[in-house]
Write a structure and sequence with these properties.
The chain is α+β, with helices and mostly antiparallel strands and 435 residues long. It has five helices and 16 strands.
C-alpha cells in the first residue's frame, strides 16, 4: 500500500486584496505555502511586540490554523482506522473467496486493487467508496453464510431425518414381511393337516399298486403255460380294464369263447367290447342293470338266454355270421339259444380295439363305470369262423383246448390298466374245485 500524504496549507498575510481578504482586514492578502507534515506550525514570537496586544486578524488566523490542524489530525486517524478496517475486510474476503473458488480469487484481487491501489485522494470519496466496498463485502458474507447454512442443512440435518424415515419404513416392511411369512406358514400347516389323510390314502394306493405289480411279476413267472392266467377286475370303475394288443381283420363270421366268474348285481357288466373306426359298438357282450345279457353287432341288439352271475366259473361261446345275421349262444358247452337278422350282411370292420371289462363310447376309451365288468375272466379266444358244437363242448368240458386263430389267449397279448391284475390260473382245476 502507498502512504497518503495530505499537503498542509500555511496562510500568511502579505499585501492586500485577493479572495482571502474577506477573512482578514481590508487591504490584506494571504499567501499559501506548502510545509512538510510534522513541522511546527507555531508562529515565531516577536519579542519586540510582546508588549503589544494581539490584533483581531492575527487571532482569526491563529484559530483557522488550529482548526486546520485538528481537521488534519482527524483525517489521519480516520485513514489509519480505515486502513485497519480494510485489512480486516481483506482478510475476511480472502477466507470467504477461498471457499468460493478461483472465481472469487480473481474478484478478491480486483477488490484489493480498487480498495487500496486506486484510492482517490479526496477523503470524502475514499470514505464513500470504502463504505460501498464494505457494504458489498457484508452482502457477500451474508450470501456465503446463507449458502453455507443451506449446505449444512441439506448435507447434515436432512439426510439424518431421511435416514430415520427410511429406518422406520424398513422396520414396518420387515414387520409386514414377517407377518406374511407367519400367515403362509400357518396356511401351509393347515393345508398339510387337511391333505394328510388324502396323502395317506394316495400312499396306500401306491403301495397296493406296487404290491400288485410285484404279485403280477411273480405270477407271470409262475405261469405253467402262456394261457394259464386270469384277469381280475374287482371294482366297478371306469379305469380298471384289460386290452388285447391284437386287432381284428375284416370278418364275415366269428366265434368268441371265454371263461367268466362274477357275482355282481345288477348285471355283471361288459365282459368285452370291440370298437372300430366309425362304430364304437361293432361287437359288444353286455349285461347291464336288470336286462338280460345282450350281443351287439354294428350296434344292433340280440338278447341271449345266458346266466352267469352266481359267482362260479362258466364257459360261454357266441357265434355269428353275416349270412342272415345268424347267431348262437352256448353256456358250459350247451347251446341255449339261436337267432337271426342280427346285422345281416354286415362285415366286421377291421383295425379296431378289443377292451376287456369296459364298454367303449369312443374307440379305445370314454368308459362308463355303470357298464363295467366286475369279476374274473380267462381264455378269451376269437376265431374268424363259426365253430362246431362239438368243439365248443370239448373246450367247456376241459377235454380239449383250441386257441383262437384271430385272437389267442396268451400272456404277451394282454395288457391290464388301472389296477386290474393278471394271476396264474389252471382254469379246469379251478372250475372243478368250484364244483
Amino acid at each position: 500500500m502507498r502512504a497518503l500524504f495530505v499537503p498542509l496549507l500555511l496562510l500568511y498575510a502579505s499585501g492586500s486584496g485577493g479572495a482571502a481578504g474577506a477573512r482578514g482586514a481590508k487591504g490584506t492578502r494571504f499567501v499559501c505555502t506548502a510545509v512538510p507534515a510534522g513541522t511546527d506550525l507555531s508562529c515565531p514570537v516577536d519579542t519586540s511586540s510582546r508588549v503589544q496586544s494581539t490584533s483581531p486578524q492575527e487571532e482569526e488566523l491563529r484559530n483557522t490554523i488550529i482548526q486546520l490542524r485538528e481537521t488534519i489530525l482527524q483525517q489521519k486517524e480516520t485513514i489509519v482506522s480505515q486502513q485497519g478496517t480494510i485489512k480486516e475486510l481483506n482478510s475476511k474476503l480472502a477466507r470467504c473467496e477461498a471457499d468460493a473458488g478461483s472465481r472469487g480469487s480473481a474478484r478478491r484481487k480486483d477488490y484489493s486493487k480498487n480498495t487500496m491501489g486506486d484510492l482517490p485522494r479526496d477523503p470524502t470519496e475514499t470514505v464513500q467508496q470504502l463504505g460501498k466496498t464494505m457494504q458489498s463485502l457484508k452482502d457477500r458474507l451474508e450470501n456465503l453464510e446463507q449458502q453455507q447454512l443451506r449446505a449444512n442443512t441439506s448435507g447434515g440435518m436432512f439426510p439424518n431425518e431421511l435416514r430415520e424415515l427410511l429406518k422406520r419404513r424398513l422396520t414396518d416392511l420387515e414387520s409386514q414381511l414377517l407377518t406374511r411369512v407367519a400367515e403362509l406358514e400357518e396356511e401351509k400347516s393347515q393345508l398339510y393337516n387337511e391333505t394328510a389323510t388324502h396323502r395317506q390314502r394316495t400312499e396306500n394306493t401306491l403301495s397296493s399298486l406296487l404290491e400288485r405289480i410285484t404279485e403280477l411279476e411273480n405270477s407271470n413267472n409262475a405261469f405253467k403255460s402262456p394261457e394259464d392266467f386270469k384277469v381280475s377286475l374287482p371294482l366297478r370303475t371306469n379305469y380298471l380294464y384289460g386290452r388285447i394288443k391284437k386287432s381284428l381283420p375284416e370278418m364275415y363270421a366269428f366265434t368268441v369263447c371265454m371263461w367268466l366268474k362274477s357275482s355282481a348285481s345288477p348285471g355283471i357288466g361288459t365282459p368285452f367290447s370291440y370298437g372300430a373306426p366309425g362304430q364304437a359298438n361293432e361287437i359288444v357282450l353286455i349285461e347291464w342293470g336288470n336286462s338280460p345279457m345282450e350281443l351287439l353287432v354294428n350296434d344292433k341288439v340280440a338278447q341271449l338266454p345266458l346266466s352267469v352271475s352266481d359267482g362260479r366259473w362258466h364257459h360261454i361261446c357266441i357265434t355269428w355270421t353275416t349270412r342272415d345275421g345268424f347267431w348262437e349262444a352256448y353256456q358250459d358247452g350247451e347251446r341255449l339259444g339261436t337267432g337271426e337278422n342280427l346285422a345281416p350282411w354286415h362285415p366286421i370292420k377291421p383295425g379296431g380295439v378289443i377292451i376287456l371289462g369296459q364298454e367303449q363310447d369312443i374307440v379305445g376309451g370314454r368308459f362308463d363305470a355303470t357298464q363295467a365288468f366286475v369279476g374274473e375272466l380267462s381264455h378269451f379266444n376269437m376265431w374268424d369262423r363259426v365253430l362246431r358244437p362239438i368243439d365248443i363242448s370239448a373246450m367247456a368240458n376241459c377235454s380239449a383246448y383250441m386257441p383262437g386263430n384271430v385272437v389267442p389267449w396268451v400272456d404277451a397279448n394282454v395288457e391290464v390298466f388301472g389296477g386290474a391284475t393278471k394271476a396264474a390260473l389252471e382254469i379246469c382245476e379251478d372250475r372243478l374245485f368250484d364244483s
